[in-house]
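Board notes (copied after class):
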Amino acid sequence: MSDVLIEARGLTKSFVQSAGFNLFGGRRAIRAVSDVDLVMRRGEAVGLIGESGSGKSTVGRLALGLLSPTAGVIRFADVDLATADAATMRGLRRRMQIIFQDPYSSLDPRRTVGDQIAEGLIIHGLGDAAARKARVAELLAHVGLSPEHASRYPAAFSGGQRQRIGIARALAIAPELLVADEPVSALDVSVQAQVLELLAHLRTELGLSLLFISHDLSAVRHLCDRIVVLYLGRVMEEGPTREVFANPRHPYTRALLSAMPTLSRADRRKREILKGDPPSPADPPSGCVFRTRCAHAVELCAKSAPPPVTVGPAHRAACILASPASGI
């Protein structure tokens, strides 16, 4: 069995948007993800980082088969998600789950916690009523809650507890892959650390693969083995977490990392502040899509999108100035 769980090649996703108040009508295609290559191995934690609108959540939904690519290929365990039939996808659903961003809206207020955790077991026909009840109790204990909580409704719980319930629900059918889409951004800072520690513990104990989507670079550094940096739907840089944090080779990555809070005056002096907002995905810049905000852009950057170049072991950056000789 291959150790590759997810493989994407040339992955592209466009959404068609109406032209709004254009009197002549018309529609236009907006590329949310463009020509993304991604390999994720079993048991690996990969962090997707980038500003809002960078395509992180779209990549996550493509990895789950919730969206079909416009171009390119994405495979889960050697199965092409775009061409898989309904029966095949049903089998794959047992092997992949998502943890949502908002622990309040992701739970049904009219159903008990136990019923919601058991829902996946019922859908996939796993166990009888007694076995499902025992599994729910086991999962609640696993995420730091009491089995007695199964009979309560979501309104009885805090945001952090609700997210633990969401994690228990995702784990119910013993998936191989968890896609965590900003799973702590809606929580208080003190609670965020607890949930992140829980995810780290569960990932190690259960051997899970984790696709972690986040703006929180500290959380990504804590949880992830590798990082993929996205900007306007394109991969700017990817590599081992420690290497990317220690030696970022793309100007965008350096700007993101320099924006992390720090108590060091020296680090504050080194900040690279991004100017302006990201361009509209409906009208991206020619060449390198980051060039309009890049302090190091040169004339060549406008002519063609730079391919990723190897800048270290398993470390690549899509920048014509990324080689050590460039001095950026």
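Comment from the instructor: The longest strand covers residues 4-18. The chain has one domain: 4-95+175-326.
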